[in-house]
Amino acid sequence: MFKRTLAGTTTLIMLTLLAACGSDMRTMNDGRMQALANFFAQHTPGDPLPRGWRRLDGREINYRFANETYAIYSIDEDEQLLVMSLDDIGRGRLEADGDMESCTWNSMADQLSIACDDTDMEWHIFSNGPELIALDLDEEEYAILRKRPGR
Question: What is the pTM of this model?
Fold first, then answer.
């Protein structure tokens, strides 16, 4: 009887681990995304950020963005603006409105710079740990970065 219980418990643990590995815990849920959008829609760039939030430096930006795909959401318009996929050798692509652009990117000092076929962007990236917010330095507008699982 002990062997059956142990075997059943081991199977249950293995299935739980497989399920956990199959889901990406870094993907933000819709409710949390809406709460962030509500806060940052009222936040003026340059004002102090909430406790626990900080601006990432270039090394941290590179770590968070290399070989990842993020959807970028407008806070003001409550819609997905584009999808950004960046590799670890300074290249990537942006997808917006059905168009795809090839890009180069780098993370200098404390900003993410992306140069594409028709688009150039410079952002400061802020994080509280698992969540990311971008401040477009040209438009002075915030956007939510939501990691997309399974690049």
Answer: 0.77
Residue 118 is given by DSSP the state S
CA distance 75 to 34: 9
Side chain identity, residue 30? D
Over residues 11-20, mean pLDDT: 31
Q: What is the mean pLDDT of residues 20-44?
A: 71
Yes or no: say if 137 and 123 are a contact pair by the CB < 8 Å rule: yes
Two tokens, residue 103: 């890009």
What is d(CA 33, CA 74) in angstroms, rounded to the nearest whole number? Answer: 11
Pairing mode, strands 99-108 and 132-136:
unpaired
Give the integer Cα–Cα distance in Å for 85 and 130.
18
